[in-house]
Amino acid sequence: MRTDFGLLLKRFAFSFWFILALVSVGVIVTLILQPESVPDGALRTGGTILMVAAFATFALNFFTTELQPQLGQYILSLLFLFLAGVVLLFFPRQGLVLPNFEGDITPSLVTLSLFFIVAIGSGWVGFLLVKESPALNSQAAVKYFTALSVLVPLAVLAFFIAYTVSEGSAVISWRFISQRSDLLRGTVGIYPAIMGTFWLIIGATLFAVPIGVGAAVFLTEYARRKWIKQLVGITADCLWSTPSIVFGLFGYIFLVPRITGHSTLLAGQIILAAMLLPLTIATSTEALMSVPDEFRSGSLALGSSKWWTIRTVVLPSAIPSIVTGVLLGIGRIAGETAPIMLIAVMSHTSAPNFFSLEAPYFHIGPLFREIDALPYRLYSIYKAGVGGSIQEAWGTAMVLIALVLLFYGLGITVRSYFRRKRGW
Questions:
Q1: Tens of pLDDT, residues 268-277
Q2: In Å, what is the CA distance from 303 to each residue of 52, 296, 316?
Q3: Angle of helix 71-90 relative to helix 40-59, nearest 10 degrees?
Q4: For the chain, what is the domain count?
Q5: Same domain assignment for residues 309 and 414
Q6: Domain range spanning residue 113?
Q7: How far apart are CA 93 and CA 106, in angstroms?
Q8: Beta carbons within 8 Å of 11's beta carbon, 6+ residues apart
Q9: What SS3 class is residue 96?
Q10: Which of 23, 63, 258, 313 lies 20 to 30 Å (CA to CA) from residue 196?
């Protein structure tokens, strides 16, 4: 009877802690969106509940001695939760003064951090109470905290996208997307910036991917000396870690005077391609090295030439991983402001138009003119106050995220197609 009663108490306890963890997550979201919406009385009540619950859960061990978790982790977690409850009860919305630190940590950040600790600690205590064998606690700890390592970035990404959509959706309209800004009429449109960003990404990809994949093919299939591979690897790593403003300065000093003397779309594409190239080389090299040697040996044994084997066997098998690497690079270059601000953009320009219905149907003139771009439009609105209000800035950010996700979707489709085609 004692065991049944203790088991019932234990089930109630871990259900309570899991619910408290979910409530804490909700409070975190509320504090981020509206820091002043949670009154001090609610914080004091939460602190009281947390202290009582921590003490009561610790006392539960005396009723369920045969089911108690490992005391080291258990008591430490309850102690942290009890102290968090004390702070919330006696010091709600109190900041933090640090010596030799300019400015104090605000109460909003302190309260947010406390509830973050409560959310993780409550979930951990509930997780410990679920396990009926103390020997499984170490394994449970690994599963719990590795799961948090996945859930936290996913939650941050989901919240970031949701917040951007909530702030920017109010200004999204067909006119906002399909027209350009007109200062005389007081209308705001980002169509030139959308097309400018689109052609920057397309041009950078067309420049970087063939060179990067070709370099990877040489390193994995033809290079015989180890020092060559090491030299290219070190060079690619140095390029990838170089700050983007340095690329922009190089383009401004070296490329711009040698192309037209002013900002151009072509200069922006070349610089962004230089930023995309090292990641393309690195991921393509790893992708080609992951192709089993049996594929190469089998093709060569059937009488195929080395180039035919690379072109029809090795490269198709590595395309999914190559596409993944290119997508990561596109996600970086799509939002770069510093380099294109120096060499490619100008506010309130027309959208580049390469095609026409009359001969010769394709024009290269837009390559040698300035463009507008979404990252620069964001900068000009938020920092310089030119081109719209803060709501237009959020709308522009929402369109930029949608454009990057569009490229991700196309890349994922291509990757899935080749994965199904290769059959392994």
A1: 999 999 999 9
A2: 78, 11, 19
A3: 150
A4: 2
A5: yes
A6: 2-168
A7: 8
A8: none
A9: strand
A10: 258
* Backbone φ/ψ region at 186: left (φ over 0), alpha (ψ -120 to 50), beta: left
E strands, 130-242, are 180-182, 187-190
Q: What is the pLDDT of residue 1?
A: 44
- CATH code of residue 185: 1.10.3720.10
Task: Provide the 3-class DSSP secondary structure of residue 64.
Answer: coil
Dihedral, CA of residue 178, residue 184, residue 187 and residue 193, to nearest 10 = 50
207 pLDDT tier (thresholds 50, 70, 90): very high
In terms of Cβ atoms closer than 10 Å to its own Cβ (0-12, 13-18, 19+), residue 47 is buried
| Whether residue 202 is found in the same domain as residue 73 | no
Residue 261 Ramachandran class (φ > 0 left, ψ -120 to 50 alpha, else beta): left
User: pTM for this one?
Assistant: 0.74
Examine the fold and report which residue of 168, 190, 221 is the final residue of a domain before the chain moves on: 168
pLDDT tens-place string over residues 208-249: 999 999 999 988 888 877 788 788 888 888 888 888 889 888
Co-location of 262 and 306 in the same domain = yes
Instruction: Give the residue-averaged pLDDT of 40-47.
Output: 85
Q: What is the pLDDT of residues 115-158, one digit of tens each?
A: 888 888 888 787 777 665 555 556 666 776 777 788 888 888 88
At position 61, the amino acid (one-letter code) is N
What does DSSP assign to residue 135?
A: G
For position 210, what pLDDT does the model report?
92
Query: With contact defined as beta carbons under 8 Å apart, do 281 and 232 qualify?
Result: yes
